[in-house]
Design brief:
Number of helices: 14
Largest sheet: 9 strands, antiparallel
CATH class of the largest domain: Mainly Beta
């Protein structure tokens, strides 16, 4: 039987190896899965030697414990894999590592490798051992008003033609820190004699209560002075490996083809005293391509995604976490009239001027609005708007007559009171909502939330008619109101129908009625109508002035 052979497998192996050397280590590993021939080429020493730094022998010789690496001196793939794990160098004062996907170089300079002003004076700094640190010693700030930390290295030690980020690895003492959030520190990165990036950063996260108090006390003054941009000054973030340390991005730079000095600086020289900063070192690592996208552009991209996607992106890196957590991103997931909705919350404790992600998380929980007659919330995965209309918001035939309906608190209801049918032969209730209150271009379902009392009778003698209507669309069907035998849930929901919200504002009318029978019925307890998105990806095909029929029974909540 003839066997298939790809054109690349016909090339000489040294030619294939030369081609693969232009790929990344991750791509070479993927390429090795194509065939056994290519697997042999992709695993060759020629290919993996090209992924190693040109000075890898010098790096191995500087390792604190070089013996395990020397056994791989002629097995370059195994050596690459060993170097893709943190490797202490230079008596343990630096850590070297290769990125396993790209092969790019990263370094961590320990606190002892940094130039820290007054660090040798025990009145200002102490050098201690911390079990969570990668290094034997860390620097802890006792008290100082002049804080200056500087790290230096050369571009020749890093991968050429690569964008790097420099990050201060630090944490804040839990019992004696003060003054670190009084003023932002000046941060900068210089290549040679040129400062390539300059900015500001706070050394610790301000407490929400403190931030709210500052907004109340100094908000107008900040606006007058034009200092409101301070609200967007970055703060320390958790590191990707979640080792208990935080990091501040000092800046980014690009390594060209020439060898130049890199100077990484953080300085805060205000007159106030500060203490409790613990410094482990400076991490210099390649930046992910998405980390180089401007924040406003990144926010615009994420506006086409979902809140769930934004949360997933936070796991990629600490920089992306900072961007994905920004107000500019989460503001896109909030309704345009969010401020007006929040103002209608019963017992409001939320302000739209707060952190936008915090606002989003809060309104993902059902919020009573309009005097407790409606409930508003946002579906946390999609960001779609949901409402529930209370029984008081519905038009119930004879609902105000105590001979037929009684109003009272009911256990499990979201509202202060629900409507209980005492006895009637004409059963009819309707509710309405504007599509402008809902998310546009979304398929919604309307559900009547009910409970069937033990004394219920006559509800399933005849089917009830359910409907959802818009000016150019009507959905109708029938339902028997009875408790499903397979559930023990007390509250049930009846699907009244579904509808699609376009861009135009229209009134949606939803209802249930049973008016054909002359028999009496009673024992139905009504909580309200819930309007929520149906989890359907494609737009429903709704013909103009169409009517659709369906028949079903009540479903458990």
């Amino acid at each position: 039987m003839a066997t298939y052979c790809s054109n690349i497998e016909l090339l000489p192996q040294d030619c294939v190896c030369s081609i693969l050397s232009y790929l990344s280590p991750a791509e070479a590993c993927t390429f090795s899965l194509v065939s056994s021939t290519l697997h042999f080429a992709a695993d060759s020493d020629t290919v993996w030697k090209s992924f190693l730094p040109s000075n890898y022998e010098d790096i191995v010789s500087r390792a604190v414990n070089p013996l395990p690496l020397l056994q791989f001196s002629h097995h370059h793939k195994q050596l690459f894999q060993a170097l893709s794990h943190p490797l202490p160098l230079d008596a343990g004062n630096k850590i070297f590592q290769l990125d396993k996907s790209s092969g790019k170089i990263s370094y961590i300079l320990s606190a002892t490798e940094l130039s820290i002003a007054w660090s040798q004076d025990t009145n200002y700094w102490t050098w201690t051992q911390t079990p969570e640190s990668r290094f034997s010693m860390v620097a802890e700030l006792r008290t100082v008003n002049w804080l200056q930390i500087e790290g230096k290295m050369r571009t020749g030690e890093l991968t050429e033609r690569t964008t790097y980020g420099a990050y201060l690895i630090m944490k804040v003492s839990s019992n004696r820190a003060y003054g670190l959030d009084s003023a932002p520190a000046e941060i900068s990165v210089a290549i040679g004699d040129k400062v390539v990036q300059r900015g500001k950063a706070y050394l610790c996260q301000k407490e929400e209560k403190k931030r709210m108090m500052e907004r109340l006390m100094y908000g107008n003054r900040r606006h007058m002075l034009g200092n409101e941009e301070q609200e967007n000054i970055p703060v320390p973030l958790k590191r990707e490996d979640d080792d208990g340390w935080m990091e501040i991005e000092i800046g980014e730079f690009f390594t060209g083809d020439t060898d130049q000095e890199i100077k990484i600086t953080l300085m805060e020289v205000g007159y106030h005293l500060k203490a409790g900063l613990i410094v482990q070192g400076i991490h210099v690592r390649p930046k992910h391509i998405m980390e180089r996208v401007p924040e406003d552009c990144f926010a615009h991209i994420l506006s086409f995604a979902s809140p769930q996607d934004a949360c997933s992106l936070c796991l990629v890196s600490t920089t992306l976490q900072s961007m994905a957590d920004s107000d500019s991103v989460w503001e896109k997931f909030l309704p345009l009239d969010c401020e007006e909705i929040v103002s209608r919350i019963v017992n409001p404790s939320l302000s739209c001027s707060s952190n936008k992600k915090h606002v989003f998380v809060t309104v993902c929980k059902p919020q009573l609005i309009d005097g407790g007659n409606k409930i508003f919330w946002i579906e946390k995965n999609s960001g779609k708007i949901c409402y529930q209309l209370s029984a008081r918001e519905l038009s119930i035939a004879w609902g105000k007559c105590p001979l037929y309906w009684s109003w009272k608190p009911v256990e499990g209801s979201r509202f202060e009171e629900a409507a209980e049918l005492r006895t009637i032969c004409w059963l009819e209730m309707n509710g309405s909502i504007s599509t402008g209150m809902l998310s546009p271009k979304t398929l919604y379902g309307a559900y009547l939330k009910v409970k069937i009392a033990d004394r219920a009778y006559g509800l399933d003698s005849l089917p009830s008619h359910v409907s959802v209507e818009l000016p150019n669309y009507k959905s109708h069907g029938t339902v028997y109101i009875r408790r499903p035998s397979h559930t023990h849930e007390e509250w049930l929901e009846i699907e009244l129908g579904s509808f699609y919200t376009g861009l135009d504002k229209e009134v949606v009318r939803m209802g249930l009625k049973e008016v054909k029978g002359v028999h009496l019925k009673g024992g139905l307890i009504v909580d309200g109508i819930e309007i929520r998105p149906k989890m359907v990806q494609s737009r429903p095909k709704i013909p103009k002035k169409a009517e659709t029929g369906f028949s079903h029974t009540a479903f458990p909540v």
